[in-house]
Amino acid sequence: MDRAKATPRPGQPVRGSTTGRPIMVLLDLLGRRAALGVLWALSDGPASFRALQERAGGLAASTLNTRLAELRGVDLITRTDDGYALTVDGTELLAAGEPLVGWVTEWAAKFDPPPGP
User: Fold this and answer.
1) What's the confidence (pLDDT) of residue 116?
2) I need a labelling partner for 6 at 20 to 30 A (CA). Which of 15, 58, 72, 114 fits?
3) What is the pTM of this model?
């Protein structure tokens, strides 16, 4: 399988890193189109494929299928009777990212134009 298309796994080279360090693997995985958006969409609770497609901004079915397979393959999401849902690891990942969201919000404000009159 082509490395660029394979689900990233710790210990294996990924885009931008030959080390396979877990942080590099996670950043590769989350940097794939819509991966983080799918996780965030599931933070609102379980969702069917179609509902998740809408929550994630109307993703193409093929893109969503690919991301779901990858995220399931690394135990960040799971399939339940209610649809797709975050696993414990997926929930913990989003919680771990909350401080980064706070930081980036303050950082981005530096680039916003000042309020108009």
Assistant:
1) 59
2) 58
3) 0.84
